[in-house]
Amino acid sequence: MKDKRPLIGITPGFDYSENRMFLNRGYSDAIILSGGMPVLLPITEDEKLLSEMIESFDGFLLSGGPDVDAVHWGEWNLRFNGEISPYRDSMELFIARQAIARDKPVLGICRGMQVMNIAMGGTIYQDIYSQIKDKELIKHSQNAPKWYPTHIVKAEKESIVYNAHNKDLICVNSFHHQAVRDAAPGFIVTARSEDGIIEAIEHTGCRFAVGVQWHPELMWERDPLFLELFKVFVDHTDK
Ligand code: MN
Question: Does residue 1 lie within any of the structural domains?
């Protein structure tokens, strides 16, 4: 473990009706167990403050959450786009761009992966089941306990995701109806499910900018293998 824990800023969820921020504890405990110091970032649209945050922190964890407003990748919101969170969109897109530009490690989980991809010029499906018609998709919104793995992803050999899990076939949980469509410039696809849906992306020009579509924060308590990606993330910080 490092002498001083690297500071990992985690973006929270936001409840507009109650004016409250929130976060699943699985994220912060995973960072603690990986040797980092998790800090919940405040919701803000102040870009000067956000720039200071990016300087002050050693890495960023973009958490899961609702859908991104399609305006951010040049589309209209179709009827099947779900709940959107304008505060999170502006804050997280800014953090993703600045962190990648400054080569600060970023881990994006579910929505966080989509935010990273959109921030760097990629696109996503607003709803995979409505927009992918040419093949049969598997179930990506599971009706099973959240920690329970329901589908396989195949990771590319020697990718960060592959190396973290030390295998190519990883059985993961799944709670998404959106997915990366075109990976942004600089990103490569490093895992897909059997139906071809993109389940992980990694930036080739950064020390660690990785997105996964599954939710390791809900799995590691039952299966410690799912802590490994958090550990690799924290290990890539400067401290
Ligand atoms: Mn899935």
Answer: no
Does some domain include residue 25? yes
Q: Are 58 and 234 in contact (CB under 8 A)?
A: no
Determine the distance separating the centroid of ligand 1 and the alpha carbon of 97, expressed in angstroms: 25
CA of 152 to the centre of ligand 1 (A): 8
pLDDT exceeds cutoff 70 at 239 = no
Q: If you measure from the C-alpha of residue 178 to the centroid of ligand 1, how many angstroms do you get, rounded to a whole number?
A: 9
Q: Count of domains in the chain?
A: 1
* 40-58 pLDDT per residue, tens: 999 999 999 999 999 999 9
In a 10 Å sphere around its CB, with 0-12 CB exposed, 13-18 middle and 19+ buried, how is residue 18 labelled?
exposed
Domain of residue 185 covers: 7-238
Distance 6 CA to ligand 1 centre (A): 30
Taking the centre of ligand 1 as the mean of its atom positions, its distance from the CA of residue 52, in whole angstroms, is 35
Distance in Å, CA 151 to ligand 1 centroid: 7
Q: What is the pTM of this model?
A: 0.97
